[in-house]
Write a structure and sequence with these properties.
Order of helices and strands: EHEEEEHEEE
Oligomer: single chain
CATH class of the largest domain: Alpha Beta
Distance between the termini: 30 Å
CATH superfamily of the largest domain: 2,3-Dihydroxybiphenyl 1,2-Dioxygenase, domain 1
Shape: globular
Number of strands: 8
């Protein structure tokens, strides 16, 4: 018996329109489905990554704020694998997104960088290959 993969990660946004724009237009995720649930006054947006995994973006009235950044107990951040962290950093900054300095993971030798979604959810870009070719 084993866990096979993570098919989706669920995110709650405080401003559905801003979050939808961020994840679709800035990060380029593809919309799979979008639903409004009137009984909950809530939106649900399913977004696909190229490997088949998905993000589920929800909206709810008055969701509680994240307690701290990013060391609150629970989910620390969501990481996305990319080919070129520096190119993504430049693209995000051109779109007005604040991005931290690129760092190098001393164990994997892969570059990574942190930024946040419109609600301050910590997101990471993690390079698919190490800097020494591995």
């Amino acid at each position: 018996m084993q866990l096979n993969r993570i098919p989706h990660v669920a995110i709650i946004g405080s401003d559905y329109t801003a979050s939808k724009r961020f994840y679709t237009e800035i990060l380029g995720l593809r919309v799979v489905a979008e639903d409004y649930r009137a009984d909950r006054d809530s939106h649900k947006l399913d977004l696909a990554l190229p490997d088949g995994s998905q993000l589920e973006l929800f909206s709810f009235r008055n969701p509680p704020k994240r307690l701290s950044y990013p060391e609150a107990c629970g989910l620390r951040h969501v990481a996305f694998e990319v080919e070129d962290v520096a190119a993504w950093k430049a693209s995000l900054e051109a779109a007005g997104v604040a991005v931290e300095a690129v760092r190098l993971d001393e164990h994997t030798r892969r570059r990574f960088v942190f930024f946040a979604d419109p609600d301050g959810l910590p997101l990471e870009l993690y390079e698919s290959r190490s800097r020494d070719g591995g």
